Amino acid sequence: MKTLEDLKKMKNTPCPPFSDAYTFLIMKLEDNIIGKLNGEKRNEALLSEYDEASKTQILIDLEYQLEKNKF
């Protein structure tokens, strides 16, 4: 299980063309919601690797990203 500590590490891990691995994760989740027929199942699979606290933080950040982009 990945934890909040792992999310912090992701924010410091480069992941071109994104600023970091955490931003890549959020953008991937957003893309699944917007552009994939089975995006919900894809996101469930991605999030299954994280503990509850991490999932909560990811979903808060994803909601912010979607709201920012008006989706």
What does this structure look like?
The protein has helices at residues 4-11, 21-35, 39-47, 52-68. It has 71 residues and is an all-alpha fold. The protein has one domain (4-68). α2 packs across α4 (52-68). The radius of gyration is 12 Å and the shape is globular. The protein starts with a helix and ends with a helix. The model has no long low-confidence stretch (mean pLDDT 95).
Kindly list the characteristics that best describe this protein.
globular, 69% helix, 71 residues, mainly alpha
Strand content: under 5%
Structural class: mainly alpha
Integer tally of domains: 1
Low-confidence blocks of residues: none
Write down how many β-strands occur, each being a DSSP E stretch of 2 or more residues.
Answer: 0
Largest sheet: none
Termini separation:
29 Å
Q: Return the string of H and E elements.
A: HHHH
Described by the principal axes of the CA atoms, the overall outline is globular
* Global Rg: 12 Å
Provide a count of the helices.
4
Calculate the mean pLDDT score and round it. 95
| Helical proportion, percent range | 55-70%
